[in-house]
Specification:
Radius of gyration: 27 Å
Helix content: over 70%
Strand content: under 5%
Order of helices and strands: HHHHHHH
Largest sheet: none
Length: about 180
C-alpha cells in the first residue's frame, strides 16, 4: 500500500514541477509575470537585470530540480521498492518546500495579487500533506519491521544451530557438537 502511495504522490509532484518548468506563465502572476514574459521571448539579458528576473530564473531551475528528484522517487518506487524510494523522498520534499517558499517570496516581492499568493500557499500546504502521507508511515513502520527482521534472523540462527546439532548426532561426531569437551 505504501508503495502505491509513493508512486502516486511522486508522479503528481513530478508532473506539477515539470509543467511549472515548461509553462511557467501559468504559475506566476503580478509583477513577476513581466520578467517571465521576457524569459519566454528569449530576452534573458534584459530579464536578468532585475531582481525579479533572477528570482524567476532561480525558481525555474529549482522546479526542474524538483521534477527530477520526484521522477527519481517514482522510478525508485517502481524498480527498487519502498526503502529505495523513501531514501530519496526527504531531499525531494525539502527541495520542493524550498522552491515553493522561494516562489512565495518572489511573488510577494513582485507585488503579486492575492490569487497568486493563495495558489502558492495551497500548493505548499498540499506539499506538506503529501509529506505527512508518505513520511510518517515509514517512521511508524520502521520499528516493527526492524523487530520482525531481528526475530527472523534469530529464528534462522536457531534453525541453523539445530540443524548442525542433528547432523553431528547423525554422523556420530558427538564430541564436535559439544565443542570438543567430554
Amino acid at each position: 500500500m505504501q508503495r502505491l502511495v509513493i508512486i502516486i504522490v511522486s508522479l503528481h509532484w513530478c508532473a506539477l514541477f515539470a509543467l511549472m518548468t515548461l509553462y511557467p506563465a501559468s504559475f506566476f502572476s503580478g509583477a513577476v509575470a513581466v520578467p517571465l514574459a521576457e524569459f519566454e521571448r528569449g530576452l534573458a539579458t534584459t530579464a536578468l537585470g532585475s531582481a525579479a528576473g533572477l528570482g524567476v530564473l532561480l525558481i525555474l531551475t529549482m522546479a526542474l530540480l524538483c521534477a527530477a528528484l520526484f521522477l527519481w522517487v517514482f522510478l525508485s518506487a517502481l524498480t527498487g521498492g519502498v526503502a529505495a524510494a523513501l531514501s530519496i523522498c526527504g531531499p525531494a520534499f525539502t527541495a520542493a518546500t524550498g522552491m515553493m517558499t522561494g516562489m512565495l517570496v518572489v511573488e510577494v516581492m513582485g507585488g503579486a495579487e492575492l490569487a497568486g499568493l493563495a495558489w502558492a500557499t495551497l500548493e505548499l500546504i498540499a506539499l506538506f500533506a503529501s509529506y505527512i502521507l508518505v513520511g510518517p508511515e515509514h517512521l511508524r513502520r520502521s520499528t516493527p519491521v526492524a523487530a520482525e527482521e531481528n526475530e527472523a534472523a534469530g529464528g534462522a540462527m536457531a534453525r541453523s544451530a539445530a540443524r548442525q546439532f542433528m547432523l553431528s548426532r547423525l554422523s556420530g561426531r558427538r564430541d564436535a557438537a559439544q565443542g570438543g569437551a567430554g
